Amino acid sequence: GESVGLHLPTLSVQEGDNSIINCAYSNSASDYFIWYKQESGKGPQFIIDIRSNMDKRQGQRVTVLLNKTVKHLSLQIAATQPGDSAVYFCAELTSGTYKYIFGTGTRLKVLA
Amino acid sequence: DTAVSQTPKYLVTQMGNDKSIKCEQNLGHDTMYWYKQDSKKFLKIMFSYNNKELIINETVPNRFSPKSPDKAHLNLHINSLELGDSAVYFCASAPGRNTEAFFGQGTRLTVV
Hints:
The complex is a heterodimer. By secondary structure, chain A is mostly beta strands. Chain A is built from no helices and 10 strands. In chain A, the strands form 2 sheets. In chain A, strands 1, 3, 4, 8, 9 and 10 form a 6-stranded mixed sheet that branches. A 4-stranded antiparallel sheet of chain A has the order 2-7-6-5, with no helix packed on it. Residues 1-5 of chain A have low confidence and may be disordered. Chain B is mainly β. In chain B, the strands form 2 sheets. In chain B, strands 2, 4, 5, 6, 9, 10 and 11 form a 7-stranded mixed sheet that branches. The model of chain B has no long low-confidence stretch (mean pLDDT 94). Classes of the chains: A mainly beta, B mainly beta. At the A-B interface, strand 3, strand 4, strand 8 and strand 9 of A face strand 4, strand 5, strand 9 and strand 10 of B.
């Protein structure tokens, strides 16, 4: 149904600073996690993923951290740029299923 | 070439009408999805097909009917449209389990 009562959190950061976006996932059986970026008027785009046998994965300017003990994911963006302004979603997938479950999203605003 | 393409991008229609949204993927993926994104950006899975077979059918009104004529296409037909159906609908595809899903650009449906 609708996300009644849920508000889209916003993170505002200065250009050039590092950003950290957090996500609490729901299912302790989930074993694959993805971060997506959604720009205005577009569909979600893959940024980085991580499997449950890892706790850290790095890409270009992005790092994902996974803490399975507390069911927490974070996305770190280094040297945030204006083009990073978007809504960021985490998604989880449980082994043996095809069902991607998305978190509520965080809007990142980069201030000049 | 667009990997996952949806038509139309915008759809404005009156309550009570029946409408369809089409989706095609040229990635050779076996699995396709429909997601609904509400005004608060919450992404909720509706349906999934794997090799033309329905594998996920969330709690969606039966006015919504997906159809997969082949594994490259997944269309969404909506009968008797209601105001609450207004949202952005995203099609996605994935090559299998435990891989990222690729999203289309979305169809903004407005029911008046």
